[in-house]
User: What shape does this take?
Amino acid sequence: MERREFTASLVAGGCAGMCVDLTLFPLDTIKTRLQSQQGFYRAGGFRGIYAGVPSAAVGSFPSAAAFFVTYESAKSLLGVSSSPYMAPVTHMVAASLGEIVACLIRVPTEVVKQRTQACPSSSSYRELVRTLGEEGFKGLYRGYRSTVLREIPFSLVQFPLWEYLKSLWSLRQGHALYSWQSAVCGAFAGGVAAFVTTPLDVAKTRIMLAKAGTRTASENIALVLYDVWKSRGLTGIFAGSIPRMAFISMGGFIFLGAYEKVRSTLL
Assistant: This one.
């Protein structure tokens, strides 16, 4: 990847991530509280809907930028195959690598953000200090594995579907897509991926919010989902799916549309 392309991906990815995370933050808070073990209203209900937003603001730009730089670099290194069957594989591998790198930045801010969302009387700073005091630095990476195991299947669905829809639409109309068209494809792809991966998101949220030393904090995703199934059934497994789909569909429209627009402007 050329230096100009690297810079464009870095800036475009960061700007797109900031736009989504800050604009749609209330939906993310509602989703977290629906998935929390204590239940929606005990976790704060509709109060303090912006609790945890400082943490999201700190991690948003660098994690999104890291994802897209890795994604575009991996696509460039893997090369564009002439075979239509290999293109989705390239996008899947590139997106998976992007998520692994981005999660190194995203998970600590996600831990602090979700704990603040589930306890609106607290603050991002207090939750950061409490986590470091009780669990040390490794406490900030509680849920890293479950986050990666959520993000990789998500990307395996979203990005190949996004790229496929773009290529199909572009072929139909005979020229490259406009930014809004790319955004529409992103919204649809994101909504599908969001619903499919909701159970993994529920497990990730439970693990991040669990008290240190408990069974849930052990990061055994299968065990966490089994406990959710026993206590709340299928509705518990898919808790928060509607706000999650709304967040990611609207987020996909803003995120991927803004990314394409900023990147094409800089190139």
The CA atoms of residues 192 and 212 lie 33 Å apart. The first helix runs from residue 3 to 23. The chain is about 75% helix and 0% strand. The two ends are 12 Å apart (CA to CA).
